[in-house]
Specification:
This protein is α/β, with parallel strands linked by helices. The protein is built from seven helices and six strands, in the order αβααβαβααβαββ.
């Protein structure tokens, strides 16, 4: 019931792409891009709440994984376990040249790559204000919001409670009660 309420809030907010970081967001551990186990083993490390959100959202919304990990094939195979009927796009291993690039761009290259592919498949391009990025790295979320998307700063499954209410009418940084000292306006 909670998942359908969250998916409904995303739909009512105009979200057409749910972009999710992998390490420490979908997955409860950081693989450091060197995970040696199978997709089935990796699946055991995923947050159950994130599995439920992906399963529920992928029926209604495009879902993509945006990661700096080079293990995109492993992540893609793990996503197939969650959603075998839907093609969850995985974008990873984009290199930023400097620390400033990471701070300014975050996962923007990943998101634009997904938007390009969806545009080719569907014949129309989604707008950035139809995207929400959920990521455990604040700078990635900040960059998404600064570029016109919604962002949710993820510090554990309880942060998904920020999706229990309607999205603001303008792209925003969504915070949950575990982030009392952070506030930003865009």
């Amino acid at each position: 019931m909670v998942v359908s309420k969250r998916v409904q809030a995303l739909l009512e907010g105009g979200i057409k792409l749910l972009a999710l970081d992998f390490d420490l967001t979908i997955c409860s551990a950081h693989t450091h891009g060197r995970y040696l186990g199978s997709p089935e083993d990796l699946h055991m490390l995923l947050y159950p709440e994130m599995i439920a959100l992906i399963e529920g959202a992928s029926r209604e919304i495009n879902v993509a994984v945006t990661t700096f990990s080079p293990q995109t094939q492993l992540i893609s195979s793990t996503m197939k376990i969650i959603s075998p009927e839907k093609d969850i796009l995985v974008r990873g291993n984009f290199k930023c040249e400097t620390v400033e690039d990471i701070l300014n761009e975050g996962k923007q290259t990943h998101i634009h790559s997904v938007l390009d592919e969806l545009s080719k498949k569907n014949g129309h391009r989604l707008k950035l204000n139809q995207v929400i990025l959920i990521d455990d790295q604040f700078d990635n979320v900040r960059a998404a919001v600064a570029n016109g998307s919604y962002g949710l700063f993820f510090q554990g499954p309880s942060c998904l409670s920020a999706l229990d209410k309607p999205l603001p009418s303008k792209n925003s940084l969504l915070l949950c009660k575990c982030h009392p000292g952070i506030s930003m306006k865009y």
